[in-house]
Amino acid sequence: MTFESKKLPGDRIASLGNILDSKGFAVGLEAHSGLSGIVVEELDFDFIWESSLTDSASKGLPDASIVSNESRLHTIDEILNVTTKPLIVDGDTGGDEDNFRFLIKRLENQGVSAVIVEDKIFPKRNSFGGTVGAGMENPDTFAKKLAIGMKTKSTKDFLIIARLESLIAGLGIEETMFRAEKYINAGVDGIMIHSKLKSPEEVLDFTSRYEELCKKIGRRPYLVAVPTTYNSINDKDLIKTGVDIIIHANHLIRSSYRSMLKTAELIFNSGRSFEADKDISSVKDIFSAVGYDKILKRDKEKAPDVKALIASGGDHSTDDQPRALVEISGKTLINRQIDTLKKVGVENVIVVVNNLTQFSSAEQLGTKLIETKYSEDNRLLDSIMSAYDNLQGHTIITYGDILFNDKIISGLIASEKDIVLAVDSSYRYHKHNIDKQLELVSYTEKKSSDSRRKLKMTELYQVSKLGKNLGLDNAESEFIGLAFFTSSGIEKLKLSYEKMKITGTSDSSFVDILNFMIDEDLEVETWWDLGIGDSTAIWFAHRIGNEIHLIDYN
Description:
18 helices, Spore Coat Polysaccharide Biosynthesis Protein SpsA, Chain A, 2 domains, 5-stranded mixed beta barrel, single chain, elongated, alpha/beta
């Protein structure tokens, strides 16, 4: 169900009673977190159980009244936020009378269906950790607190259940029946019998006596059993004895601890996590469980429809193949670009190429290939405009010989300007292995800093000029061959190209048309400073002799 649960507190409180009325019984499983609550939600259990033991253990603490009610209520809220099934809460001793009143109101407000309180004194000790008779509350005192609780609750749908600890404390069946009678007479909605024996015999003895006791009193509260130790008995058989509610109380926290320990040991002993993969959930599974995939789907629905054009039609070859087809770690540059674009939802990718046959691997990724007749370096603009008829709507335009990550693409798309360039202000520190003129950028206002690699990812700077002849002292950054155009921006680009054709200057570079647009008083902005290292860097690929060099900005 995830966090999109829409069940209101009132409806949720009543849902446990509705299940009991329709089925005649209810079986539930423990949850100690939102994620474990989702696990219970996905299976056919009737309700979720939240206990002090599992809550404390999930926080790395003992079950000894150390974890506060406020902390417990926070956990309860986490579970309720991502599930719809009824929730029964372990209320420990309930505290004193005032604390019990407050607990009931808080649980009702959250939408909890029932609270179970045990007849032990505060601070309690876990039942399986050694409850003794001295730790038991006076039955009259406890019955009085129960009666106060019954008067406090706002709706009959919210159940107050008294938990009998006397069998575990070694006080015997007679004392247990004595206490049960007092608590029933106090008006409780249910009685929970607890045992730590591995055999169900004493619980079955109690269930038969319970029916006789209820006949004598004239009312029968729900009977609750927790077969943690006596788990050889089947749920169906317990129900036949008269048990209405069965709680499997701590199994998810126990299984999670063992699984985490096993995984941790495997990673430690292997010196890597590869061996652990077969025994753990995938990240995709977790995303699906918590509803992250739904968020991504909505993001795609909300995001503008963006296409991409990759310019790989220039005369940039390495050993008789286009530079875009150079393999980096077994995958070509062009395929890496396409994968990155699709990662952020840019599915419509166009690649302008010199030779269709050479780019068959890119075509297999679902791209549209357009062959250009302009392969000269000084005809890059004409080459790009081979895709003129396909340039519509929001568009990423990138050179085919650079690598980039998804953060850069997402940032450009989110920049909210018609024409935005990705730039790098650390160009002064490049250590190129070849003599190369840079496509430098100057701004209308000087923005550069003396501080190397100062990151300015959130600022938009208006461009005044681009070109290879600006000179290092006149430039603020370097254009790295990646730009974003809104639908309006792409129409401005096409109009500018038509004007350049009229003037006979269309046989130019991509930078030339950007300068043309600036001269036409169209705003061109820069957004991203890439001088930050490998996590966001752009790399250029060059072949020098028999070697492929990735030029980065370290």
